[in-house]
């Protein structure tokens, strides 16, 4: 390579590593943001990087999506009365997005989003638009959760997924859904305040 080409060539800059504090503060802050209508859970253990939570059973409205605004609109339609009983439900937090990846890759091949229907819901009505949004039972599982603040870009979510996966395996645990992950977001969708996020991986119970 000539001297002129070497001078014009861009200099590769190393990507700054993601830095964590003990018990990621966004996890703690998100826990204070949740209320009685949020998905119920108990903290089974707190690790240096993450929390292990046992989620109780609850109902959610869930929508497949490619465009986040359209997916959220479908969820809001259901909880504002777009169901067979015209029943309304509380606006709950967090908004949880589930991502399915091609086996062994980070290539997302399917996405859904969901909102809890609130505490005490036992028999939610069917959706008035089942092709856009449905009702599902969730919970009854062990989940590892790492919190972080800011905009959850695909690159940042991917890095947290890799780091959380490594930490889980280092602790002798095994992923229950190795080709999928979840991202929970707290706060108003269009707020300018720092967003609280939780990346979540389902874990097999020890000895299972």
UniProtKB/TrEMBL annotation:
Highest taxon of source: Eukaryota
Pfam families membership: SOUL
Database matches in SUPFAM superfamilies: Probable bacterial effector-binding domain
InterPro entries associated with the record: Reg_factor_effector_dom_sf (IPR011256), SOUL_heme-bd (IPR006917)
Regions annotated as coiled coil: none
TM spans (from-to): none
Family: Belongs to the HEBP family.
PANTHER family named among the record's database cross-references: HEME-BINDING PROTEIN-RELATED, SOUL HEME-BINDING FAMILY PROTEIN
UniProt-recorded name of the protein: SOUL heme-binding protein
Annotated organism of origin: Micromonas commoda (strain RCC299 / NOUM17 / CCMP2709)
């Amino acid at each position: 390579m000539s001297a002129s080409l070497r001078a014009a060539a861009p200099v590769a800059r190393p990507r700054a590593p993601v830095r964590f504090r003990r018990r990621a503060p966004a996890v703690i802050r998100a826990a204070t943001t949740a209320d009685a209508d949020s998905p119920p859970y108990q903290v089974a253990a707190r690790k240096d990087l993450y929390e292990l939570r046992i989620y109780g059973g609850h109902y959610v409205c869930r929508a497949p999506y490619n465009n986040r605004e359209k997916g959220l609109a479908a969820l809001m339609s259901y909880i504002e009365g777009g169901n067979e009983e015209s029943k309304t439900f509380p606006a709950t937090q967090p908004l949880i997005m589930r991502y399915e990846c091609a086996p062994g890759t980070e290539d997302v091949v399917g996405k859904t989003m969901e909102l809890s229907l609130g505490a005490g819901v036992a028999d939610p009505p069917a959706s008035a638009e089942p092709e856009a949004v449905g009702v599902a039972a969730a919970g009854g599982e062990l989940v590892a959760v790492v919190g972080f603040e800011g905009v959850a870009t695909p690159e940042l979510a991917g890095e947290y997924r890799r780091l959380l996966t490594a930490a889980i395996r280092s602790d002798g645990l095994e992923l229950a859904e190795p080709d999928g992950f979840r991202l929970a977001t707290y706060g108003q969708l269009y707020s300018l305040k720092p967003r609280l996020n939780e990346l979540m991986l389902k874990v097999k119970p020890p000895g299972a």
